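Q: May I have one protein plus its fold?
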Amino acid sequence: MCGRYVAPDDAAIEREFNLVRAEWQFPESYNVAPTQLVPVVRMREGLRVGRLLRWGLIPFFARGVPPKYSTINARMETVQSSACYREPWARGQRCLLPARGFYEWQTRPDGSKTPYYIHLEDQEIFALAGLWERSPSEGGEWIESCVHLTLPANRLVGEIHNTQHRMPAILTREAREAWLTGTPAQAWAALAPYPDEHMVAWPVSTRVNKPANNDAGLIAPLAAA
C-alpha cells in the first residue's frame, strides 16, 4: 500500500510547486522508505513552503514516540474518525508529498511477490495527498511527521496490488490547491482514484526490497534492470 516511492530532488520540487521558501536540501531518492525524512509541501502564513518530515505520522498524544503500529498510510474511509488522523484532518493540516512514481508488489500464485514501478504519463512530478502533525517529545522537542492517504485502487493498480487493492491518493494538478487550501468539503472532493489510462507500470528488480539500494536502476523494467 505504497510502502516505497521515488521522490524528486529539492530543485525539481521547488520548480514544480512554485515554492517561495524551502527549508531543505537533498538529492533525488529512488527508494524512499518509512521513517525516513521526506519532502512535503504545505502552507505557512498563506504561502507554500517546503519541509522535510518523518514519514510515519506520530500523533500529538504520543509525546514524540512513534507508535508500534504502522502510520505511513491512512485510509480515506477512516481518516476523519481515526484517533491518529482525525485531529490533523480537523485542523486542516494537509500537505502534498511530491513523487515521480511509487512501488507496489504483486503476489504470484506461488506466494512470491514481484515489485512494480508505477508512474504517470501526464505528470512527471505529481503530488500524493497527505496530512502532517507535530508531537511534543518528553525533552520538549517538537517532532514533525506525515502520512499518505490511500483509497480503493483503480483497475491497473488493483491488478498489481492484488491482495489489498489499495493505492495512494494521487492528486490531479487542478486538485492540488483544493487539497492544500480548500474547505474540508473541497479537499475531500479532491480524493479519487487516479485514472488508470494515465498510469504506466512495469515489473522491476527485487533490489528495491532493500532500502539500502537507492539508484536509478531500481525503476528500470525488469528485463533491463
About this structure: The chain is about 15% helix and 35% strand. Residues 10-17 form the longest helix (8 residues). The chain has a mean pLDDT of 95.
